[in-house]
Amino acid sequence: MGTVSNTNTINAEVAKELCLEKVGEAPGGVGSGGAINGGDTFLLGDCELDIKINDAKPLDDDNTVAEDDEQFTFMKELTASALPIASPAAAGLLGLAFFYCFEGGVEFNFGLNKQQTPPSVLFYASDKHLDADELTLVPFESLPESMLPSVTLIMNGKEIPALFDTGSPITVINQAAAIEAGIETIIPSDVVNPDNKSKEGNFLSKMASNFKSANEIAKATQSGEILTIQGTDGKPTRLIKTKEQQNIHIKASSSSKKLLPSSQIFVGEIPGLSALGGIGGDAPAAILGIDILSRCDRIIFRARQNEIYL
User: Fold this and answer.
1) What is the number of structural domains in the chain?
2) Taking a C-beta distance cutoff of 8 angstroms, is the pair 256, 233 a contact?
3) Which sign, positive or negative, has the C-alpha torsion 138, 142, 146, 151?
4) How far apart are CA 233 and CA 56, in angstroms?
5) What CATH number corresponds to the domain at position 168?
6) Could you list the mean pLDDT of each consecutive 10-residue stretch along the chain, which spans 310 residues?
7) I want to staple 220 with a disulfide (CB 3.0 to 4.6 A). Which of 111, 151, 225, 256 is the partner?
8) Which residues share a beta bridge with 163?
C-alpha cells in the first residue's frame, strides 16, 4: 500500500495472465520517477482477506461477530490500472484512493512493541475503536491537483517539505535540501555525477579521474551506498547514502515536533518530485519512506481527515 499513488496499480503481465476484464482507462499522471502515460483499468472483482480468528473477527452489517470463517468479502468490485512502469517487487499497489475508503483510517503495526505481536494492518470503518492516545498527531496537507500527502521534516533546524510515502522503500532528499541542511554524502556528488561540461585538465588526467570515479561508484553500489533508479524517460538517477545517520523530526504543529528514528538516508534528484503537486525542483524537498516509518511502533493514516498518527 502506497500513500503516494493516486490509483491502484497492477503489473500488466499479471492482468494478462489473470484474463481480467478491461473496464476503462486511467489518464496519464506523475510518479516519483517522472511523467507516466495512462493505462488500461481492469476489474479485480470482490476481494477477500485471510484473518486470524483469535486476533480479529469480521463484523456483520449489524456489528455482530460473523461466523468463524477465516475468509470474508473485504471489498467489492475493486479495480486497478496497468501502468507502463510497474514495481518489480510486487504484482500491484493499493494507492491513495484505497485509503479513502476507510473513514476511521488504516493502521500499520510493525510489531516492534514489547508484546512482540506480529506485524499487521488494521482497517477502521469509523473511529469508534481507534486507539491513538499514545501517538502524536501530525496533520498533513494534500498537494494541489495530485492530492498526495505532504508533511514537513526538520533536519539540522531546516524545514523541508516531504511526501509521506508508505510505498517508498527509502527516504530521499534532493540536492537542494542536502545543501540547505548541511548534509554530506558518503561519496561527493561531483564524483558520482561529474560535470561533463568542464574542459579543464589534460586528457590523461581526465581519464585517470574517470577511472577512479568508476571504481568508487562500483564499490559503493555493491555495498548499497549508491542506488540507481530508472525514470520513466529511461534515464538512470543515482541516489547516494548520507555519510552519517540523520536526526529527523516531523513537524506536528506550529510549536511541536516528533523525533523520528535516526537513519542514513539518500540524496539525489527524483525526476518526478517537482511535478508531484509543486514541491521540489530547485527548492529543498524530500520523500519520507518506509525505511524510517517501519521503525515506528505504529502509524495510523487517516486520509479523509488529513491526519497521521505516529
Assistant:
1) 2
2) no
3) negative
4) 45
5) 2.40.70.10
6) 70 80 73 62 77 49 48 74 61 79 89 73 87 92 83 94 88 90 81 50 55 73 80 72 93 89 89 56 85 92 94
7) 225
8) 150, 287
